[in-house]
Amino acid sequence: MKPTIESLMKQSSKLLKVYGFERPRHESVIILKDILKKSYVDILSNSDLKISIAEKNKILENLFKRLKGKPLSKISGVKEFYSRQFITSKDTLDPRPDTELIVDVVKNLSKDFTKKKLNILDVGTGSACIIITITLELMSKLNICATGLDISKRALLVAKKNLIKFNLNNKVNLIQSNWFDNLDNKFDLIISNPPYIKKNDLAKLSKEVLHDPLISLEGGLTGLRSYFKIAKEVHKYIKKDGFVILEIGIGQLKQVDNIFLNQGFRRILKEKDLQGIDRVVVYQYKSTKYIV
Ligand SMILES: C[S@@+](CC[C@H](N)C(=O)[O-])C[C@H]1O[C@@H](n2cnc3c(N)ncnc32)[C@H](O)[C@@H]1O
To answer: Is residue 73 domain-resident?
Structure first.
């Protein structure tokens, strides 16, 4: 017999609850809406609608993936970032709410920009959530020329899908590169949320985080490998008065500051995330005028 939306939602919520998921009904709606290609509200307001057996089977398949600990975003293939839905996959880090702070910092800095044209580079672009959001947020007032680079070809395929989704295919350039190896131009803003988890801390991460690719998480034994690499080379690619804007991990502020100070940069800003953790830092090359 064909089940209704409500009966399947009840069954799946019950199972999710037994398995200890905190928002079982919400998660059920998401699983159902993806397969039935309906909105969240449609699911809730059409609860007596009958579902085909094929749809039911697909819903159960996804429910079991969820019960085994796969993140909802990796099941549905989408994750929200700055109120937009980004395509994501096993080859990309799921965009995180903390990373939205980078967008806020860039938006704030942009209020003082005197230039009308801005060249922006996103190092380790992954799904391209940062560079796409910044472009969409700023393009009505500035002429944005944006580039996202990543070492992972597969992540870049996902980034490309997002560019097409947000109609930015002609506006944002994608480059496959091991850090700055394949770059030869300079930028006003260089942004990065690099891999920064200590190798030995990976095992302590939640099961869900471990569905993200290792290359997007692991920052070597100290967690600082990416910052050393970026700090050493970034001056060749930053324009005079340009900014380097980075996400950092918990407790990394002092060490990242030292790495950049040693390479001739000064920190001009730091911002805390919603949990009060120093999360985003902004540096300028010392030869540039001090602005804060
Ligand atoms: C923490 S993820 C950030 C992804 C995305 N920018 C975000 O904030 O959601 C780090 C990204 O850096 C990329 N990456 C790692 N090593 C790299 C390297 N040597 N050169 C370029 N990109 C690298 C990974 O593939 C991954 O996409």
So the answer is: no
Question: pLDDT digit string (tens) for 186-208?
Answer: 999 999 999 999 999 999 998 88
Enclosing H/E stretch for 191: strand 187-192
- Nearest atom in ligand 1 to 102's CA: 8
> Ligand 1 pocket test: which of 88, 150, 163 has the largest number of ligand atoms within 8 Å of its C-beta?
150
Q: Total domain count for the chain? A: 2
Tell me if 291 is assigned to some domain.
no
Q: Which of 132, 114, 8 is nearest to 59 (CA)?
A: 8
Best mutation site among 99, 104, 156, 193 for ligand 1, i.e. most ligand atoms within 8 A of its Cβ?
193
pLDDT tens digit sequence for 230-245: 999 999 999 998 999 9
Residues 160 and 268 in one domain: yes
Cβ neighbours of residue 72 closer than 8 Å, sequence gap 6 or more: 27, 30, 31, 66
* pTM metric for this prediction: 0.92
